[in-house]
Amino acid sequence: MDLTIAIVSWNTRDILDQCLESIRANRQGLECEVIVVDNNSSDGSQEMVQEKHRWVRLITNAENTGFSRANNQAYQVCEGRYFLLLNPDTICRKNTLQAMVQFLDEHPGAGAVGPLVLNADETLQLSWARFPTLLSEMQGRINRTIDGMSELLADADGVRVNGAFQTDWVGGCCLMTRRETVEHIGLLDENLYMYSEETDWCLRMKQGGWEIWVEPKAEIVHLGAQSSSKIKEECARILRRSKCAYFAKHFNLTTAAVLAVVLGVKSFGKRVLTRATRM
Length: 279
Description:
By secondary structure, this protein is an alpha/beta fold. Helix content is 42%, strand content 21%. It has one domain: Spore Coat Polysaccharide Biosynthesis Protein SpsA, Chain A (Alpha-Beta Complex), CATH 3.90.550.10. 39% of the residues are buried. The mean pLDDT is 90.
């Protein structure tokens, strides 16, 4: 089998339906399977998949196990040569899946590849970055610089013209890896419940000698934050915890502690500012 597509869903019934329809319409030429791991949705997502998408394999969890563990569940039963993390709030375009499979076929040194990611209005969604540092986190800046290509990568057309390029990590909304890579570096880190898990995965791939690429011949639309928007404050706390766990793992506990203080102060400042603007 060419490809396993893993979709982790929590209360995203309508957009999950849209995502699955886009896969159904654009999977021609590939032998692939789709595994939806539902993290205890209460909006009828499970019933929708069972009724409308019987070609999809559904795994249901009794609780929200998080992004990493749910994707690992899918990997442990997958049959594809390649394994795709795909968010339910995405729409696959024509030839997207084929282009990513072809890229990995032609680049045996690539451990992972991501597509050109677009917002709903067709503008570029920046889906790649350099690995974070304490300084970049303190400054609140994500370093997306690609040496010698920064101007070309300023918009979607520039990325298309530039063609495929290497980076440090690509977003988990659509990330395809190969079975050989996962067997080499291991599954997603389940200590990273949600957020930073793809950064950690790509770093481990890089440390294992694998390359990380963006392939603009593949395009998806990413609507963004459809599950996390339902619980914004809780997700903000999870994001801070995941960042600190990442830094503790790849730097040291002291650096993680400093980051925790920085993120805590920033969060407090945002809450104060929000309350002030409402008065």
